[in-house]
Specification:
The structure is a homodimer. By secondary structure, chain A is of the alpha/beta class. Helix content of chain A is 44%, strand content 21%. Chain A is built from 15 helices and 16 strands. In chain A, the strands form 4 sheets. In chain A, strands 10-9-11-8-7-12-13 form a 7-stranded parallel sheet. In chain A, strands 5-4-3-6 form a 4-stranded parallel sheet, with helices on both faces. The longest helix of chain A is centred in the first third of the chain and has 19 residues. Chain A is globular, with a radius of gyration of 24 Å. The N and C termini of chain A lie far apart (59 Å). Chains A and B meet through helix 10, helix 15, strand 13 and strand 16 of A and helix 10, helix 15, strand 13 and strand 16 of B. Strand 16 of chain A pairs parallel with strand 13 of chain B, so a sheet runs across the interface.
Chain lengths: 419, 419
């Protein structure tokens, strides 16, 4: 094991030192920086693709599973999409400087609550190299310095990306250390970063449940948990069953590998036979493996038997757990016991049940008669997102530029003292 | 050492189970609960005072310092003040249910961002028993369940208080476990509470630097750091020196034991001799011990010599570190190196320097020409406060009822699926 401390501490100190200059960049400079980063990605794409080839070759030699190799793989098209993403961030409104609230107090003090950058953001993430560029771009626009820690299998790609966009950013007016990559491959490097409270303001882990858990367990820097989604669709006895079918198929199959895909279907007993006989074959046609409770298996004999583990699993795959419940309340209890506070949906025509579901479910996003797949910064109108928070502090659900800021109080006085 | 786990886990589970009922309480019920808590404090004051006498007796026997005994001591007047505090919280607007933002998306989805309670709040705090009542009251109004962990020297007092207000709250419509006190005295009990992520949503530590550090180091539950304030007043060369004197004396002396009191005075060299010759004797008259840099001691020979430790110390006492600086920029560097991101003030008549100070200082509250002592929920118009955040996630500066909430997205659809 190499000693990760020197690199991590050196880069964290450089980040801290760059934070004030980054925070002071005007909107015009930040937007110019973002376009320069985009231009550089296109111009130097071959350099990036060569680095990526080395990662992909190593991953194949190491026997990495094909879907993971796919996530790692860059192409001209993917690089162009990253560049386009940066230009879209440039086009978003600058969140910094907004006066969120304010007014004059009886003693004459003028108190302004002003939106300011977070400072130094530590991003810890897994394989996809596009996260490197997305995170750097969003941090630039929000006036933050970012320290990036990607997956070791993407190290060459990420190093090339950060070199290209970092040099371009600096050339266009950002500080030299506005974006840095931790390159020491050991887990110790990530753990060191998580505990540098004097240099790092916030950690945003983005990846699977294991990564998130490691950050929660080891970090002393404040962190925002993201992304683990064991999402449910509950089909009420009063549901429009045609609508319910479309939503269940969409929530499960449209993109099964993402956090807002549905993992468990809950069906009210009164409509279970009718609904499952209709939706079951459609799901199977889409390649979905069903794992049902005993009642479900009575209706769909080909479904496998669900275990307790199934109710708790985020499959991220074409697998759906199915449970028949006796009532809305039993569905709510199931969601409270097994949900991850991400996205939950009810399909119903009953007003009171819709209201009850929205009030009772403790999650970032609660849906009536829509697919859980909409929990997304773009779909919510935030423009872009750096992750989806599943905790309750600071930000909940999709986090856009505004969620990458904090505020400070600026108080203008005329000699006031407290009596 | 007793085993803290059974009590802490049992109470945390009970809190989790009560959270949904507490969150669903109407404003009318919550306000009735708060008044019932206040009434009960007055009615059962003798029971509370008897319990407090036992704590005070034990503290004296254990040789606790007199100021700490004073903080522990309850009286009829202090109990009446606690009751009045609860009635003031009842009079504040209910933060829960506010629609913070919302609108219809192009696909017809109506997305509402709705303010909701945090859920289960863990309060870890030190000696003063009034924090027990303040925290319980604020949590009730924000729809949260609270688990209280006070200092062991206040255990009898806190147990009596929680029994009295808890029974009254339940009698008036709150869940039976809306407020609970962890009574196992070991530090292990607090550490257990800090790691119960499945039951506790947020930790709010309130106390000295040691307590805050212990929470930051050991907690896996998201925590809000509060209250450590190494606050500075910088007297610029362009300052109105009369105003500066009044502000420095107020910031240091009006209540030296609190987090928003000034701990270091920075003075521009151009006015150092004039200003320090004026303010030095006034501070000494107020009983302040001065600890100065060499230049300061050249002007005020009676000042002790300040060491590096002094620049970093939150005295919470009638001691003031004094440093003469060459420029505004040197003052900013000093604050960046030693400040705790709490409250910082500049005294100046120069517009550009005021703007520069406000933009450059990274703190919860930045003042121009006013005392740092105003950083307070009441003074900021928040009505009441549960603490002052010195971190950047979720809330910064004074935290009132709104900062004891989070939000969720409620999405109303008509069958929308994602394409």
């Amino acid at each position: 094991m190499t000693d990760a401390r020197p690199e991590v501490i050196r880069k964290a100190q450089a980040a801290r030192a760059a934070a004030a200059e980054m925070a002071a960049c005007s909107t015009a400079v930040k937007d110019r920086v973002l376009h320069a980063m985009a231009d550089a990605l296109i111009e130097r794409r071959q350099y990036i693709l060569d680095a990526n080839s080395a990662d992909v070759r190593a991953a194949r030699e190491a026997g990495l599973a094909q879907p993971l190799v796919d996530r790692l793989l860059l192409s001209e098209k993917r690089i162009a999409a990253m560049a386009e993403g940066l230009r879209e961030v440039a086009a978003l409104p600058d969140p910094v400087g907004e006066v969120i609230a304010g007014g004059r107090r009886p003693n004459g003090l003028l108190i302004l609550k002003v939106r300011v950058p977070l400072g130094v953001v530590g991003m810890i993430y897994e394989s996809r190299p596009n996260v490197t560029v997305d995170a750097a771009g969003l941090c630039v626009k929000a006036g933050n310095v970012v320290i990036l820690r990607g997956g070791s299998e993407a190290l060459q790609s990420n190093a090339a990306l950060v070199r290209v966009i970092g040099e371009a950013a600096h050339g266009a007016g950002a500080p030299a250390h506005a974006m840095q990559l931790i390159e020491t491959p050991d887990r110790a490097a990530a753990q060191e970063l998580m505990r540098l409270n004097q240099y790092v303001d916030v950690l945003i882990p983005r990846g699977g449940a294991g990564l998130i858990r490691a950050v929660v367990d080891h970090a002393t820097v404040p962190a925002i948990e993201t992304g683990v989604g064991n999402c449910h669709v509950y089909v009420d006895e009063s549901a429009d069953l045609e609508m319910a079918q479309a939503i269940v198929v969409n929530a499960k199959c449209q993109r099964p590998g993402v956090c807002n895909a549905a993992e468990t279907l809950l069906v009210h007993r009164a409509v279970a036979e009718d609904f499952l006989r209709r939706v079951g074959p459609r799901l199977v046609e889409h390649g979905v493996e069903l794992r049902g409770c005993p009642v479900t298996r009575g209706i769909l004999p080909d479904a496998a038997a669900a275990t307790e583990t199934d109710w708790a699993t985020e499959y991220l795959d074409l697998i759906l757990a199915v449970r028949v419940v006796e009532s809305l309340e039993q569905a709510l209890d199931h969601i409270a016991a097994h949900g991850t506070k991400h996205s939950e949906a009810i399909i119903t025509r009953d007003y009171a049940r819709a209201e009850r579901f929205c009030a009772a479910v403790d999650a970032a996003a609660v849906y009536v008669n829509a697919s859980t797949r909409f929990t997304d910064g773009g779909e919510f109108g935030l423009g872009a997102e750096i992750g989806i928070s599943t905790q309750k502090l600071h930000a909940r659900g999709p986090m856009g530029l505004r969620e990458l800021t904090t505020y400070k109080y600026v108080i203008h006085g005329a000699g006031q003292i407290r009596s």
